[in-house]
Amino acid sequence: MKFVHFLVENHPQIVELTLEHLWLVGVSTLFAVLVGIPLGILSAHRPVWNRPVLGTANVIQTIPSLALFGFLLPLPWLGERADRLAILALTLYALLPVIRNTYTGIRGVDPAVIEAGRGMGLTGRQLLLQVELPLALSVILSGVRVAMVVSVGLATIAAAIGAGGLGEFIFRGLAMVNNQLILAGAIPAAILALSADFGLGLLEKRLRPR
To answer: Least crowded by CB within 10 Å, which of 3, 25, 102, 189?
Structure first.
């Protein structure tokens, strides 16, 4: 009951921090999609780029989140605003699943279908836009789904550099040894992650080729 009373009393702040959290996750996921899908396509069509691109994305994943925030802090313009820095860091972490699934989806298209498209006179660009991407869309969306769920969790750490979001409650609760504050940040973050996973999962199933 105490926790429910706490939620009611702090409802405006919880909503505000949840919106900040959504902003960080939404913008970083969008950037990851805009950068990751072209890199995945490049890796699938130009095998020489596969190892460098996926290797770099894998290395980024191994860097602890707080360490990455620290590495980016000295950068001009980015370091001046915590939200910019957090969005860049979250984008870098979200790249791997988007790139990998785009590569897997494009490479998984039946070669016979591609040959049939070439036989119909389609150019490489037309094959990509009209054949490969539509058939690989559900696999690509699966990568976006993973990226978004990961970003929801990592965005809580962005509060450590003052970027806002639900992590503010968690860090404040840890400092004060207050379970109510920790839960006020952890529960909405978990709900956001589960909602994103469920919603994108449904969309992925609808877009799956039959």
So the answer is: 3
